[in-house]
UniProtKB/TrEMBL annotation:
It comes from hydrothermal vent metagenome. Its EC number is 5.4.99.22. GO terms for biological process: pseudouridine synthesis; rRNA processing. This is Ribosomal large subunit pseudouridine synthase B. Residues 270-297 have a biased composition (Basic residues). Residues 258-269 have a biased composition (Basic and acidic residues).
Amino acid sequence: MSERLQKVLARAGIASRRAIEALISEGKIKVNGRTAVLGDRVGPGDRVNVDGQPVSQDKLIQQPCQVLLYHKQVGEVCTRHDPEKRPTIFKKLPKLQKGNWIAVGRLDINTSGLIMLTTDGELANRLMHPSSEIEREYAVRVFGQVTEEIAQRLLKGVMLEDGLAKFDKIMDSGGEASNHWYHVTLKEGRNREVRRLWESQGVSVSRLVRVRYGDIWLERRLRPGKCELLVEKQVNLCRQWVGLEPVASQRAIIRRAKESVETKRDPVKLRKAKARPPKKHTPRARIRRDNKKKKKR
């Protein structure tokens, strides 16, 4: 079955739909050797090149949408291949027969906590995009004196080198002396944004843990360095946040397939039933008759 080119490439994690549409308009995508145009459709067997690089056939075939939660540890990086040979989270993930795990944003090497990954590139792009306004919540231990004035500035907005940034909420979580815990929320995921916001006020972050992404929490049962798959209901919740259609129920597909097989088998069973001899002519019935005759004698 063919689908729109930008939809297939976005799902494969090549780029967002808008970015792919821009590449098509710039003539940087080819389908079967021909320069692609908006509206082109592709399917299994088509040859697609993006900016001179071929796209593997596996990426053109729609894979089941899966979402994975991983509890990142301090010291791990969120890249597939690290030139410094540091441990990467991708070494800890379950292997896929087809497709790849795509990280929904990143956490820096000194930050731990919840990382979401998915096999659907379009879902990943939409979850990360600031326009989706999905809340991220962090537990942060701050070293230094945090006054009410500092908190208000962080809520109102601080100009960083890459633009205005702010927290949506700051919640006091207790602590001792100058090492104090807070829970903060924001709706974007710029590089080291939480740390840079606190540092702009003359205090430092001594520990940072992401505990929530949208309505998905880092549960205590998910130990550091471990991962778990979301169930279908949770996957569809993530898709609903960003306006994507729900995934088809695998159980429903299997059930329909079984019903179809059973329906085909029923006539065969009926034919066999009609072909059976009457009970009085079966071998067991003959044995019973013979035994009765012997008793009479």
